[in-house]
Amino acid sequence: MNNIEIAQKYLPLLDELYQQESKTAIFEGDETTVQKNGTGEIKIAKIDMDGLGNFDRNDGYTNGSTTFVWETVKYDMERSQKLKIDRLVNKEALGIPFGRLSGEFLRTKVIPETDAARIAKICGTNGITTVEETLNTGEQVITALRACMNTMDNEEVPEENRILLINPVFYGAAEDLDTTKSKMVLQKFKKIIRVPATRMWSAITLNDGKENYGFTKAVGAKPVNFLCVERSAVTCALEQYLKYFSPDEDQEGDNHKFLYRNNNLYAHCYENKLAGIYASFGG
User: Fold this and answer.
1) What H or E segment, with its residue span, contains residue 277?
2) With contact defined as beta carbons under 8 Å apart, do 7 and 102 qualify?
3) What is the rounded average pLDDT of the residues 46-69?
4) CA dihedral angle for residue 17, residue 229, residue 223, residue 145, rounded to 10 degrees
5) What's the mean pLDDT in 252-269?
6) Which of 202, 192, 48 has the alpha carbon at shortest distance from 128?
7) What is the pTM of this model?
8) pLDDT(258) > 90
9) In terms of C-beta density within 10 A (0-12 exposed, 13-18 middle, 19 or more buried), how is residue 20 classed?
10) Residue 81 burial (10 A CB sphere; 0-12, 13-18, 19+)
């Protein structure tokens, strides 16, 4: 098996793990809304149309316009890391040791960072609805979620595809009420995803890898109690790449090396659908 085949062997496994473990993968666009070309840019489908006008018995229909364009946008970030494992430690050549290493890297480093960056970018988008509130009880959580629903209802946001990302503590408090009212509110969401508090910040800092790695909460960032997103209001995209070098090719040691890189569009929020995004921040 050559180097390219080895990298191709592991990349689908990483993609599958990402889809299983990521809390925000649900917002990734398919080929009908996102076109990836591997160049550091992607195309996002955008559609808009005029409203109704009066029908004229002589001139007929009003002449409005419908626009469908592919907007080219750049990825937000390119992130990378070099994974390596000693030849003798991994003596069965890319067996269980490296499989565990790469899976753990994705699960504990790539996915939490991607989720956090996406949530922070959505929360920082101008024009969405944001509320600052303290939620100490299940009743307060249900009241806050009801307010979110009411706001979206009044803005005529489609109800059938509202996705709720929520701190597990707040979800548990609401679920523990076990009342008709609480059940009715929770059932209003198409999908409820419990996201660890470590990924729920209104802003984060991505460390550059020169002194520190990964991400941290940004100065002044607020914790996110919950984030409700109507599915069509946001799209995300991720491209992952792998390169492999054998120990014989390692000029710095005697290691199997996998070079991991991703291009990430953390979130693209559609300007005409910002009413479909509602964020609740803690104090």
Assistant:
1) strand 277-281
2) no
3) 76
4) -120
5) 87
6) 202
7) 0.86
8) no
9) exposed
10) middle
Coil, strand or helix at 210: coil
- 2: confidence class by pLDDT, cuts 50, 70, 90: very low
For residue 172, give the H/E element and its range: helix 168-177
More confident residue, 112 or 178: 112
Token pair recorded at residue 130: 């944001």
Interval 40-52: pLDDT, tens: 788 888 777 777 7
Average pLDDT of the segment spanning 222-236: 96
Q: Where are the alpha helices (DSSP H) in 93-167?
A: 96-105, 111-123, 138-154
Long-range contacts from 142-148, C-beta under 8 angstroms, 24+ separation: 142/174, 142/177, 142/181, 142/182, 142/185, 144/225, 144/226, 144/280, 145/174, 145/185, 145/186, 145/226, 146/185, 148/226, 148/228, 148/278, 148/280
23 close to 193: Cβ distance less than 8 angstroms? yes
CB 128 within 8 A of CB 277: yes
Strand locations in 17-171, DSSP E? 34-36, 41-49, 66-74, 77-86, 129-132, 162-166
Mean pLDDT is highest, among 46-60, 168-182, 233-247, for 168-182
Give the β-pairing of 129-132 and 162-166. unpaired
Give the C-alpha separation, 208 to 186, whole Å.
Answer: 39
Distance of CA 15 to the CA centre of its chain: 14
CB 282 within 8 A of CB 135: yes
